[in-house]
Specification:
Layout: E1 7-10, E2 19-22, E3 34-37, E4 40-43, H1 45-53, H2 55-58, E5 68-74, E6 77-84, E7 90-94, H3 108-111, E8 116-120, H4 144-159, E9 163-168, H5 170-181, E10 186-192, H6 209-221, H7 223-232, H8 235-245, H9 254-264, H10 269-277, H11 285-288, E11 296-301, H12 309-312, E12 321-327, H13 334-337, H14 339-359
Parallel strand pairs: 7-8, 7-9, 9-10, 10-11, 11-12
Antiparallel strand pairs: 1-2, 2-12, 3-4, 5-6, 6-8
Helix pairs in contact: 4-5, 6-7, 7-10, 8-9
């Protein structure tokens, strides 16, 4: 009961969709689409209803804001990214494990109407290069340190400005790590269903550690791993996996299956896949959040079978987290399953903190 009392429900009459928000005394929060009452931050139901009701006009991409695909040379590697929009604050969209920048296809054109939007393929994923760590002599290449460095360098080299990070799953850990390493590059972070990293060495029960490590070595160092990857990298397997993590399975379309599968058929994808599932070190979200100095908003699909919201709610207690937002009847990838909820969240959060940034000129 104590946990439930720390949330409030806002019912949206037109959609019958409740959203839950954590109580948090945040004097900084002055979002134009939000209101504050009794120290509870909640969406203005009428305002959000208008946004959702206008989905037919506000959420349908127009050709003017369709993303352009470009490449960026980073440390000698070719990195694919997409960009759209010419004005407003910069946003960098960071995908999760096994995904790529196309997973933000429902967000980029909408957000580009009032932002400079960039979506990047992390090295090893999508259509970015996939160097084999054994061939380059670096067995610790695919780590959050590498991806965080890539994200910060992208802001410096391509955007040439600080940016807001919008991240899903392991992309959330990447964004948090990047903000800790180079706080001057990040204006704020929106994290969607951040990876809890339940196979992290610190979270493994002592009696399971030797078995998990042996299984990881079996996958990484023998032909079993390649056989396992081939079994996963099929249309049927990808569809089944997506149907597990999407609550609304009607959103698992042929297009989505192709978006996830096709880059996984490129040379080097198997090695990257096996490297990451054998990666049990690096930072945890609960270790990074206390070190983050920029504002953070956490949103969570409450039907996520991989990252249970019951465990994720605790992240809302960190000082850097302004709000913890529950997205009802949504799975692990809210940006794709419920863009009509995620896009307004991003717009409101950025509008608040971009305004405060403009009002405080740099020294």
């Amino acid at each position: 009961m104590a946990l439930l009392s720390s949330f409030t429900t806002v019912t949206l009459p037109r959609t019958q969709t409740p959203l839950f928000y954590r109580k948090y005394p945040s004097p900084k929060l002055k979002l134009p689409h939000l209101f504050q009452s009794n120290r509870i931050v909640a969406f203005s139901a009428s305002k959000l209803n208008d946004q959702i009701a206008s989905k037919s006009t506000n959420q349908i991409p127009d050709l003017q804001h369709e993303p352009q695909t470009r490449t960026w040379n980073w440390r000698g590697y070719s990195i694919r990214y997409q960009c759209a929009g010419n004005d407003g604050p910069a946003l960098v969209l960071v995908h999760g494990f096994g995904a790529n920048s196309n997973h933000w296809r429902k967000n980029i054109p909408v957000l580009a109407k009032s932002h400079r939007v960039y979506a990047i393929d992390l090295i090893g994923y999508g259509y970015s290069d996939k160097p084999n760590p054994r061939q380059i002599g670096d067995d610790s290449f695919y780590t959050f340190d590498t991806w965080a460095a890539q994200l910060n360098d992208f802001c410096l080299d391509v955007i040439k400005d600080k940016a807001f990070f919008v991240c899903n799953s392991i992309g959330g850990v990447v964004g948090l790590q990047a903000a800790v390493v180079a706080p001057q590059m990040c204006r704020g972070i929106i994290v969607l269903n951040v990876s809890l990293r339940m196979l992290h060495i610190k979270k493994q029960p002592w009696y399971a550690k030797p078995f998990i490590r042996s299984f990881q070595r079996l996958l990484r160092d023998t032909a079993v791993g390649k056989f396992f990857f081939k079994a996963v990298a099929t249309k049927e397997s990808v569809r089944n996996i997506l149907c597990q993590c999407y609550h609304d399975t009607s959103m698992v379309t042929d297009e989505l299956v192709e978006i996830i599968l096709n880059p996984g058929l490129e040379p080097g994808a198997a090695e990257v896949f096996l490297e990451f599932i054998c990666y049990s070190g690096g930072p945890l979200p609960e270790e990074l959040l206390p070190q983050v100095t920029c504002p953070v908003l956490i949103a969570w699909g409450d039907k996520d079978p991989w990252e249970p919201i019951e465990l994720g709610r605790n992240y809302g207690n960190f000082d850097s987290v302004e709000d913890f937002v529950v997205l009802p009847n949504v799975g692990h990838c809210p940006q794709d399953e419920a863009p009509h909820l995620v896009n307004p969240l991003v717009e409101s959060f950025v509008a608040c903190h971009a305004k405060s940034y403009v009002e405080q000129p740099s020294s």
